[in-house]
Prior knowledge:
By secondary structure, the chain is mainly alpha-helical. Helices cover 51% and strands 12% of the residues. It has helices spanning 12-17, 39-44, 57-96; strands spanning 2-5, 21-23, 28-32. A hairpin with a 4-residue loop joins strand 2 and strand 3 (28-32).
Amino acid sequence: MRIYLNIYYKHKDKAKKAGARWDPKEKSWYITYKDERDFEQINYFRSQIKDKNSIPPEAKMYLKKRFIFNKQKTQEMKDFEEMKLRYREMDLEAKSHFRDL
C-alpha cells in the first residue's frame, strides 16, 4: 500500500534517505506500508502525508498512542523541572540563613 507525501524539492534528499520513493507516474513521493514495522516511517512523514485517510487504522492507533505517551512524558518532564527549581529555591533560602555577618 502506498501513502503519498507532499515533499518540497529542496527536501527530496532528506526524504530519500528516510526511505521515501519517487513515483514518476503520479509525480509524487510515497512510502509503502506493509506491516507494523513501517509505523515509524509513517510517524516520521506524518506532517507531509497528502491524504490522511490513506493511513491504515492500525497505524493511526499507533500514532495516537505515541502522541499520548509523548504528551504524558512532556508533562512529567515539566513536573520534574518545576520540582528541581523549587528545591533550588529552598536550598538558596536555607543558605541565606547561614551567611557570615
